[in-house]
Amino acid sequence: xxxxxxxxxxxxxxxxxxxxxxxxxxxxxxxxxxxxxxxxxxxxxxxxxxxxxxxxxxxxxxxxxxxxxxxxxxxxxxxxxxxxxxxxxxxxxxxxxxxxxxxxxxxxxxxxxxxxxxxxxxxxxxxxxxxxxxxxxxxxxxxxxxxxxxxxxxxxxxxxxxxxxxxxxxxxxxxxxxxxxxxxxxxxxxxxxxxxxxxxxxxxxxxxxxxxxxxxxxxxxxxxxxxxxxxxxxxxxxxxxxxxxxxxxxxxxxxxxxxxxxxxxxxxxxxxxxxxxxxxxxxxxxxxxxxxxxxxxxxxxxxxxxxxxxxxxxxxxxxxxxxxxxxxxxxxxxxxxxxxxxxxxxxxxxxxxxxxxxxxxxxxxxxxxxxxxxxxxxxxxxxxxxxxxxxxxxxxxxxxxxxxxxxxxxxxxxxxxxxxxxxxxxxxxxxxxxxxxxxxxxxxxxxxxxxxxxxxxxxxxxxxxxxxxxxxxxxxxxxxxxxxxxxxxxxxxxxxxxxxxxxxxxxxxxxxxxxxxxxxxxxxxxxxxxxxxxxxxxxxxxxxxxxxxxxxxxxxxxxxxxxxxxxxxxxxxxxxxxxxxxxxxxxxxxxxxxxxxxxxxxxxxxxxxxxxxxxxxxxxxxxxxxxxxxxxxxxxxxxxxxxxxxxxxxxxxxxxxxxxxxxxxxxxxxxxxxxxxxxxxxxxxxxxxxxxxxxxxxxxxxxxxxxxxxxxxxxxxxxxxxxxxxxxxxxxxxxxxxxxxxxxxxxxxxxxxxxxxxxxxxxxxxxxxxx
Length: 771
Prior knowledge:
about 775 residues, alpha/beta, 6-stranded mixed β-sheet, 5-stranded mixed β-sheet, 25 helices, 23 strands, flat
């Protein structure tokens, strides 16, 4: 390694350099041992391991770590014996060698201050490990080895180590499905600190400057457009001068002819000047755009890392965990060179770890069960990473038993998450979605690995926070598959730019389900909620301005621009002012002084330099749910035609669906516009959000009864003149007196009225349906 090739290493101590070398060489040893276990007699793997052990031995001798020298020497002897056919690297012997690898990693991470004390405290266990490696050729199977306390603090205090069956010095495997981190002792310890933080800040500054350069380049475009318009105007002027010269020539006046010819001659250089310089400016713009975009791309490339950097410890983890459960499982990885943003790579390591552990514990059968099912004794988990359609696609699949869908269905019913009839109608995809719910587990009893009811919910939440999605598929008896889609980077986001109340906002494209225009006539109202039909599903309409608390601007347009967000039953149609189109935005974090802004995730600059806020779609969905529960959604279909409506509008408030629908249909047939509310609270919220000519209410309702609703309406400064009719089964004189004393304008009993009775009462109060 020369300084001119790999940078200046003079700032590092010899111990630092040893740690770097130990990290890389122990990974070679780990990968080689796993390969030898799967493919006995792999000469290339043995050769690579011999070189790695020899390099570690030499480096350890330089820094004076004699224990590491002895370990590496013993391992090197084993590899020489295997290379000459004198030793077969059985799984038991691989366990011993992997324990030696783990011990080398632990020793390499000791600092000068604590090294002597740690070595003294663990001398007996270290000797046992050295003896086990030295005598590996004579060991038919592995004796139990003691656990060595790690000198490196554990990343999560709650992590519960799973002891491997043969050697506790193997990679420390912590309880992943319990929402804890996984760390292999063979994996390099992260050395995050001030330098890493400073590097991240420098990157953010570079990206900000590069994106501003690109924006400045884009701002040349309108300037060039103005020059093009000037050129067209000049062309018209020059053409007029030419026509004038022709007309003067035909007149035969020598004096005018001379002047017009002189003017025509002076216009030619001007015309040539404009043509040449506009062409030069356009060329300059193209070059500036290319350079600025190249700068952005190069800065982003600094953050990209190969996929292998985040998953290099997984094959060892899968092997050790499977053996601890008495199973035989191998991990095959495809797409290790796929580039991923380093921040995304760090954040998805835990979710991927969860998925692998879940596959081993839940999905993979034991070797005898697999053979009985006609499968190979060795199970296989495949992980594939690819770039697809500008996104990072990760697929994790296994050839295990799959998920018992009926068991999920039964668990849903037992937990009262759905009625038996509703559960019976759930599709396989809908059933698998329940696995993402917190505290949802199919295991009857918990162990160190799983069954606590946490795990996949953490996977789902972490991926969602990265603007990603995860979808599950299962084929009983054949296997399980998880499909994860993520942005390639969080620094640049492809977004849909919209206008809300005259301001620009952006929604990450990955969160946009569809964009449509909804005719006013296609909007229906049910229980004060407006919806339209899209592909056979009813989608609720919500004003983006209301959700973002920007007020409400009625639109008189015949069609509403709508962005559909969310998935499944939590899908909503966000009504916006206008849709500008897609742009790639360089994400800029909002100053921490503002804290977490509701419904906003970050900021950016559009190509024309205009600032834009990037919406946090999960936050938006929560805000919409809150508005729905409060019953405070604004009406959209009527808002655009408030001054044009010709029918009087009635609000029917009743907790009985049958009564509501009967009254609604009667009034609709007579030509009235009708909205409905399901109880007094809902009615009170609705009546304040719209203009009504009459309220018809029941008395006995949950949350707020009709008498209280009438009292609130009559005491309200803006609503006190609104006519209110009570329709109730209570027909005693005292009930009627109570309703009328609260302010009701009419009291009608349900037991005595027929169709015409209700309609006549309405006519008495507000007249005909038409204004």
